[in-house]
Amino acid sequence: MMLFLMRHANAGTVRENLELDTKRGLVKEGKEQCMLMARLLGALKVPIDVIVSSPLKRARQTAQLVGTELGYEAQVEVSPALGLNASYADFQRLLEKYADREGVLVVGHNPNIFQFLGRLITGNGGAAIRMRKGSIACVRADRHPPRLQWLLDPRTARAVYATVTKSSRPKTSRK
């Protein structure tokens, strides 16, 4: 299985009221991050069989926008195993449920999404991995221990797109 762990895209400023914070949706920049990262996944031709999201609005929106851009036709599944209070044991049960899939995209929150990633690839959580908003990590989960293949954030993706779209040759006129 190829496992793609994604931190939800930018949802603006954290609200002190927990109830209001759980309803916080993506801001314009966050929606742009989703489109950019989905195009990146599409360009890499990643196999996504299932998309699973945290129950919070910002994660669900991220999952839906990425799924739509990728042409994912199934329903985005929602799991409390990716919520703010989820444990690593919850996350492991989630992975077991989808063990027969080739590509699984999960969308969650910091700090638990990067803690899950660190624990997954080290076995003990010893890796401190920073995931900016909208970041995606690719883990080859069919190996033991699972191996981190790559980790990209929207800043890096933008930089790659900017350099790819520029021609490496100087412009010359044809007269």
From TrEMBL:
GO terms for cellular component: cytoplasm. InterPro entries: His_Pase_superF_clade-1 (IPR013078), His_PPase_superfam (IPR029033), SixA (IPR004449). One of its GO terms (molecular function) is protein histidine phosphatase activity. SMART domains: PGAM (SM00855). This is Putative phosphohistidine phosphatase, SixA. It comes from Candidatus Sulfuritelmatomonas gaucii. The lineage of its organism: Bacteria, Pseudomonadati, Acidobacteriota, Terriglobia, Terriglobales.
